[in-house]
């Protein structure tokens, strides 16, 4: 085993466990690196000897879910023209439905410990959007954290905190302000030593928050529209930077479309109270519409659950089921195409043999 986990690479999250997992790559003469950003067949990465730019091997998997992504740990072939040839298995990953709405998923960030869902208090809280982001966060395998920004512009930060907490059972909610410095020290302590990704809409204040945590203007920022609090995509690609107190931060472009991609586990976490209530329904396949003995509908009648919350749960379940069915159909088609190709190749081989005989 090497001593890389004691080197400069440890600043980016390299550990003894990762070093052990890299053993076979070490034997092959490859060097470990963490991907900082990816752009058009190239990736910027950091190695034990510093930053480098590497080509992504042309033979690498065409599956978007297997494509190199910010946060990945990679094996590079060293030399004057470094090449990325393999990735280490991911411990976690944020996956959404691709922007093209195809049956493929898109990985936003990999090997993260904390997903900081950033929400601006300068505008009214969008409950449905927060629930979507939380579903992605929970499903990633990382720990979600809600960071409410721009508290100095909020009419009632305490009420906003309570509203967000009610939408996110089991998730810590922190009210912050870059302008006043409110709770930035608390947030810094929470993120120390971890890989954290900032996730949220354009104009939520992700880059400004990131700069405050970094102690420098390393991430580009821009003004937002006063009428709706939205901004243009200042951050144009995902980027990983080390935090002064330990750990790393991944800034992401603002998300306009947040399509779900097989996020069943995430939805169960986000709507944990509905999942719990459903266990007491009279029928195991209760759809919570008009069925007698429905514990979910009873909770709405008693004022313990809102109709909006149940409607959001149903909508996201339908969307998730549709995405899963699209993925299943694509996988079936790919298997069928592979079988057809094998059959065609066998037929051609038999014809060739028959001609020779």
Automatic annotation (TrEMBL):
GO terms for cellular component: cytoplasm. Keywords: Cytoplasm, GTP-binding, Hydrolase, Metal-binding, Nucleotide-binding, Ribosome biogenesis, RNA-binding, rRNA-binding, Zinc. Pfam families: RsgA_GTPase. Its cofactor is Zn(2+). It is an enzyme of class 3 (hydrolase). Zn(2+) binds at residues 281, 286, 288, 294. Binds 1 zinc ion per subunit. Residues 102-258 form the CP-type G domain. GTP binds at residues 149-152, 200-208. It is found in: Cytoplasm. PANTHER family: SMALL RIBOSOMAL SUBUNIT BIOGENESIS GTPASE RSGA. Belongs to the TRAFAC class YlqF/YawG GTPase family. RsgA subfamily. Monomer. Associates with 30S ribosomal subunit, binds 16S rRNA. This is Small ribosomal subunit biogenesis GTPase RsgA. The lineage of its organism: Bacteria, Bacillati, Actinomycetota, Actinomycetes, Streptosporangiales.
């Amino acid at each position: 085993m090497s001593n890389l986990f004691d080197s400069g690479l440890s600043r980016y999250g390299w550990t003894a466990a990762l070093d052990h997992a890299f053993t076979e790559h070490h034997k092959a003469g490859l060097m470990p690196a963490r991907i900082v950003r990816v752009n058009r067949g190239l990736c910027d990465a950091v190695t034990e000897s510093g930053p480098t730019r590497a080509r992504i091997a042309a033979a690498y998997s065409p599956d978007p879910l297997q494509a190199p992504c910010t946060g990945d740990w990679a094996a590079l072939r060293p030399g004057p023209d470094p090449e990325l040839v393999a990735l280490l298995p991911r411990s976690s990953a944020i996956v959404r439905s691709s922007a093209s709405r195809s049956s493929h998923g898109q990985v936003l960030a990999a090997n993260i410990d904390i997903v900081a869902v950033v929400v601006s208090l300068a505008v009214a809280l969008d409950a449905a959007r927060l629930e979507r982001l939380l579903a992605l966060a929970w499903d990633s395998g990382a720990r979600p954290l809600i960071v409410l920004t721009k508290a100095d512009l909020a009419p009632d930060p305490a009420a906003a905190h309570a509203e967000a907490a009610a939408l996110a059972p089991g998730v810590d909610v922190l009210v912050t302000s870059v302008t006043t410095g409110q709770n930035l020290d608390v947030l810094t302590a929470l993120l120390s030593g971890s890989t954290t990704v900032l996730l949220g809409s354009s104009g939520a204040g992700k880059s400004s928050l990131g700069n405050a945590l970094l102690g420098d203007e390393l991430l580009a920022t821009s003004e937002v529209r006063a009428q709706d609090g939205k901004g243009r995509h200042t951050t144009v690609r995902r980027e990983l930077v080390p935090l002064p107190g330990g750990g790393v931060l991944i800034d992401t472009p603002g998300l306009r479309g947040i399509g779900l991609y097989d996020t069943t586990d995430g939805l169960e976490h986000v709507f944990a109270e509905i999942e719990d209530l459903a266990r007491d329904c009279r029928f195991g396949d209760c759809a919570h519409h008009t069925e007698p003995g429905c514990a979910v509908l009873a909770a709405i009648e008693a004022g313990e659950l809102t109709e909006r919350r149940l409607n959001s749960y149903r909508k996201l379940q339908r969307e998730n089921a549709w995405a899963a069915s699209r993925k299943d159909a694509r996988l079936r088609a790919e298997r069928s195409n592979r079988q057809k190709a094998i059959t065609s190749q066998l037929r051609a081989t038999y014809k060739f043999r028959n001609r020779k005989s």
